[in-house]
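ugh ok so i messed up the first submission bc i forgot one of the chains. this is the corrected input, ALL of the components this time, i swear. 211 residues overall. if the numbers dont match what u have on ur side tell me asap before i send this to the collaborators (the ones from the other lab, u know who)
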Amino acid sequence: MDNFIDAAVEQFAHDHTEPETDLYRRLREETYRVMSSPQMQVGLIEGRFLKMLVRLIDARNILEIGMFTGYSTLMMAEALPADGRLICEIDSKAEAIARRYFAESPDRHKITIQMGPALETIKMLSGPLDLVFIDADKVNYSNYYEACFPLVRPGGLIIGDNVLWSGKVIDPKDDNDHAIVAFDRLMQSDPRVENVCLTVRDGMMLAWKRV
Ligand SMILES: C[S@@+](CC[C@H](N)C(=O)[O-])C[C@H]1O[C@@H](n2cnc3c(N)ncnc32)[C@H](O)[C@@H]1O
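and heres the new structure output, hopefully the right one now
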């Protein structure tokens, strides 16, 4: 993943953001040691931003599509009240790591893992959801958006990660590139939402469901 921000400026932003606890540091280091695509982890700035969004909209029920080893999950769980939360994942190696770190977290009781393809999980859910964070397989991003939309409460947020896809959205070539561009266009043209495309990390699209 390319970084859009000058490395020194990014470091400054990192150093002026609520820091990681030891739990996050160990989770990050283990993920980079043992997982094949560790850069999928959202990292401190995006993680803290997600936590801030959970706080700002008083979210109670969150759906995270693509948990990986659980870094973003733990960040959002910090800001949740005691109930709510569900996460979809299909990779059992990532799940095993996430479960070990969740077990150490004071927020572990807020986290429910649902293993299996996310589109199947969404079919089993009932709303209302306050926030959906889409961060799984890129070819299904638009499907996730449409599938979860009816479950999101008015005033709720749908967030897509990696929406600038290391800049490949400018000249899309493969299926993933085109899927991300299609997802960005879908949100941009959806009259049911107000949206903003942010240059945080690899790009974050925020869509607020109109009331
Ligand atoms: C970009 S990573 C998520 C990173 C995570 N948010 C973090 O900060 O650590 C994407 C994850 O989505 C999972 N995934 C891919 N396809 C999926 C599917 N169809 N259903 C559920 N999870 C899926 C992958 O196994 C991977 O762990």
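quick check: The mean pLDDT is 95. that seems consistent at least. The pocket of S-adenosylmethionine is lined by residues 40-42, 66-69, 71-72, 88-91, 94, 117-118, 135-137 (CB under 6 Å).
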